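In response to reviewer comment 3 from the previous cycle, which asked for concrete evidence that the modeling workflow produces usable outputs, we include below a single protein chain processed end to end. The sequence was submitted unchanged, and the resulting structure tokens are shown without manual editing.
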Amino acid sequence: MSFPPFTDEHKIFRKSVKDFVAKELAPNADQWEKDKWFPDEVFRKMGKLGYLGLRHPEESGGAGVDYWYTVCFAEELTRSQSAGLNMGVMVQTDMATPVLSELGNDEIKKEFVEPAIKGEKIAALGVSEPGAGSDVANVRTTAKKDGSDYIINGSKTFITNGKRADFITLAVRTGDEGFGGVSLVVLPTDVKGFSVGRLLEKMGNHASDTAELHFDNCRIPQRYLIGEENHGFRYIMMNFQGERLIAAVAAVQAAANALELAIAYGRERKAFGRPIIKFQVWRHEFTDLLTQVEAARCLTYRACELFDQGKDPVKEISMAKLFAGDVALKVVDRALQFYGGYGYMEEYPLARAYRDVRLLTIGGGTSEVMKEIIAKWEGI
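The workflow returned the following structure tokens.
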């Protein structure tokens, strides 16, 4: 069997995504970056093409296909030239909705998952708080029982799709202190008491909306509980694996895209009578970078294989995210250096990539957190 196991069907699907990105997304990326927003219509278009429900079961309107379709989708989406758009879409597909498909009751699936797959509703994941980012066990947003409802109070920050979301997959405290008292619920954003605070100004990923959210006595029915009460910490940790793996896939492809752009530029740009790519210092530099990207891809694809097989490759995913994020930062930095002064200009894509790629060692768990996880699995 070939590895990775991309079949003819995967290749056909990849081509459809590539064509969609080239026609519908990339030509608008510059404007969306300036607007610091991309239209909600993007979700609806992707929903009609079946891109938002690849691994969701068919009974919820998904395609029920293997994880390699998600890899194809994520890799081609990086060519949109808008990491903010990519982030908003991947929150919908791989961060906020999978746990609803896996653990939500029939009502949750019908009310939230099915319209999300169609692109008719937009999802956000509400975990990070001002005092609890990667430290999920210290979530302070509370959900108190009142009859057959929960009353929710608290706040969240760094929430992608926070302004535009129709619903939030929300981490709340339903029990005692620590990881044993955390639950997951679905909160529709049209409930009384919900409000969007500041839209956060970010270094990169400009086209995505990232917001602070506030909950002031928000009332939701207890049927919006995801899975079992006080089991949310485990669910979030499971969900993190998909989030971190897709981040690794995106990081590898972002690095590969930067190299592709730089090498093409180097063949055209001349200095001292020859293409700058022909100078030994850069030829050797690029061979090192190409090797590191290939190593990152192999490590990431290995984690994808285990994840697709239904295993729980926490260590392998953490290694992939750690290594791929570092490689992406290095590659984009060196590619920008190769461009010289032009790389510093906003009209060239490396300037945007330089800002955007910086998030890859922070979002979904910092590199330092990945190292702690790996060390723990190795008994160090």
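The beta strands are 123-126, 142-146, 149-160, 167-173, 182-188, 194-199, 210-221, 225-226, 270-271, 274-275. We consider this sufficient to address the reviewer's concern, and the full set will be provided in the supplementary archive.
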